[in-house]
Design a protein that fits this description.
By secondary structure, the chain is of the alpha/beta class. Helices cover 37% and strands 10% of the residues. The strands form three sheets. The chain has a six-stranded mixed sheet. Strands 6-9 form a two-stranded parallel ribbon. The protein is globular and about 50 Å long. The protein starts with a helix and ends in an 11-residue tail after the last helix. It binds 2-acetamido-2-deoxy-beta-D-glucopyranose (NAG). Pfam families: Lipase_GDSL (PF00657). Keywords: Signal. One of its GO terms (biological process) is endoplasmic reticulum organization. Belongs to the 'GDSL' lipolytic enzyme family.
Length: 361
Amino acid sequence: MAKNTNSLFFLGVLTSFTLASLPVSGSGEPPLLFTFGDSSYDVGNTKFFSSVFDPATVWPYGDSVDDPTGRWSDGHIVPDFVGRMIGQQEPIPPVLDPKADLSQGASFAMAGAVALGSQSKTVAMNFGEQISKFVEIRKNWTDEERADGVYMINIGADDYLNFAKDHPNANPAEQIALVASVLTRISRELMKLYRSGGARKFAVQNLGPLGCLPIVRQEFKTGESCLEMVNFMVKTHNERLIHLLRAMTVPYRGFRYSFFDFNGEILRRISEPSRHGYTDATTSCCGTGSRNAFGCGYNNVHSKLCSYQKSFLFFDGRHNTEKTNGEIANLFYSGDKNVVSPVNIRDLVVRSVSDLPAQAI
Ligand SMILES: *[C@@H]1O[C@H](CO)[C@@H](O)[C@H](O)[C@H]1NC(C)=O
């Protein structure tokens, strides 16, 4: 039953690009896919983690595919599209699903996950715990499968959003200190994934302009502007993240990556919505409040749902619509060096580690 639903759910992705473009790896099998991060990559881990109500498991989440699965969108998310593009038949399952078929990989991502996990926080499996979990169950896959696999990473957004909420008056020095600790932690975890997990091929997206999220505009009452403090932290984070990845290729032999400028893509859409087919890039499709940004999925909230989801950049206060996710995935997979470097995911998959550039030229 669960498997059937999955296949049906995946059919939508099948139609969105041509099969002719599938990469062929050495073994002829599609590479495995593993994902780590927060709600943007969550495929349902949250609902297995705790009994607290998870709005992403109910309508209107999943509205475009008639199936709310725990994904924070009206349909597929970026790793779903990428999984299909690298040749997988089914979307990878949430690792916490006791019935999950892990043969093609797994998603360890969970809503609310942060890089700097504090002990007291038990609301989510944080980034470090996700990596530990992978290392713990790694024998489900051979060394070779793990070395050929693609590791998609999207983490840090909640660190900055939580900080802005808790310390709205933090000065730039404090903000930069946070960025430094977040990146130290990310680098430590990636090192662990490489050393203990056997990962080699990393696909990392930078953080979007979080200060422009509908939920941030709404809660901080920014009017027509974005919240500068958050965008400043994100900008600093993103600049240092690419340096960090570059630096890691030096001591860590065979460490290769694809770095996607998600931030630039979202900003382009916000500044020229109509060019990208949006009528709205600042308000969410589902929710309530001045930016319609709060409470999607909660039945005690009188939330509104837009009539045409494809014309919105954001589905809820902080997550993209399926339309946006599909475009992002296409660019991540096959975009040129202006958006994804030193190679895109297609090259990352097809080429062997020794044949991949270590740094952008
Ligand atoms: C494989 O994964 C399952 C499910 O998470 C886990 O319980 C099991 O211990 C893993 N097996 C090995 C050999 O790592």
